Amino acid sequence: MKVIKFVFAVSFIFLLSCKQDIKTKNTEKLQLVMNDFFDAVQTKNFDKIKNLTDTDFLLYGHGKILNADGLIKLIKGFPDIKTGHELGNFNIDIGDNIANMTYINHYIIYDSVQITKDFLESAD
């Protein structure tokens, strides 16, 4: 359905050294940010979407390249149906001032019939 492309601000990745415990904490933070982002999209919490993204945010999906405002406009056009997601299988590479992750987004649409899809997505 979509491949999400983020640029995480340096503020999420203040690595003072290459110690594993720092990388582990930042890895956990990045996973929380991704879960928070998808929760905000699912609940149509537009303020939270804006707080979780920066000016470099770009999303590639639905045949378009969207910034946060474009994503919000797209979400406003979605029908009111119950959806869910579960992120897993994270593979995160943390550098000095950027992080890259791939993950599986297990997406569920609860309509007259439950539809589930797994998407391989990435974020930078």
TrEMBL record:
SUPFAM superfamilies reported for this sequence: NTF2-like
InterPro entries, per the entry: NTF2-like_dom_sf
PROSITE patterns, A to Z: PROKAR_LIPOPROTEIN
Name of the protein in its database record: Nuclear transport factor 2 family protein
Organism field: Pinibacter soli
